Amino acid sequence: MKNSVKATLIAIAVAIVLLIVALAFALNQRAAPTPPEGAEQQTVRTDSHVLDDGGEGAVTVVEFLDFECEACGAFYPVVEELREKYDGEITYVVRYFPLPGHINSTQAALAAEAAAQQDRFEDMYHRLFETQAQWGEQGEETPEVFRAIAEELGLDMAAYDAAIADPATAERVQADKTDGEKLGVTSTPTFFVDGEKVVLETWDDPEQAIEKALNG
């Protein structure tokens, strides 16, 4: 009887988590605007942050993300599994798309970009998702939280502070978002596989798109 009750409670907990993620994703959705005629559309630029470089012939996977987005946080372990499974076969690129409804989303992106200037983007990327529950859904921005994470990572704090204060860092974050808007991105996470937008309905959709690109 105890095992049956425990199994039921676990099933209910999993269902609640999936419902929360689904609601978060739905709330971030809005009708996709039509990109302006003649607007430049690029899924990857020379300064885009590449987590994995599969080399020539690899499938390029691009994720537009918001570090505060619960759906992005839920997809984070899925993405890590894909990176491991397709190591050497895909080039995985991360781009910023902070949503206005998330108070700390821009601060988190600035922290990631400041870390990137010290070649520590991936370290900050992991820590932001690992600590999302601690700083997400706040009533006001908490830049001190991200500064503490930078200290934990052992970053040069003078350089970090200078990067956060530099308008060019915010412009770099905005440049990613602008590209995303031109591509019709309206919610996070949004994935592109070899330039094609993935219709995201299930956890397996990114993997299915990768398989199609690899075998197509």
From TrEMBL:
<protein>
    <submittedName>
        <fullName>DsbA family protein</fullName>
    </submittedName>
</protein>
<dbReference type="InterPro" id="IPR013766">
    <property type="entry name" value="Thioredoxin_domain"/>
</dbReference>
<feature type="domain" description="Thioredoxin">
    <location>
        <begin position="28"/>
        <end position="215"/>
    </location>
</feature>
<dbReference type="InterPro" id="IPR036249">
    <property type="entry name" value="Thioredoxin-like_sf"/>
</dbReference>
<comment type="similarity">
    <text>Belongs to the thioredoxin family. DsbA subfamily.</text>
</comment>
<dbReference type="Pfam" id="PF13462">
    <property type="entry name" value="Thioredoxin_4"/>
</dbReference>
<dbReference type="InterPro" id="IPR012336">
    <property type="entry name" value="Thioredoxin-like_fold"/>
</dbReference>
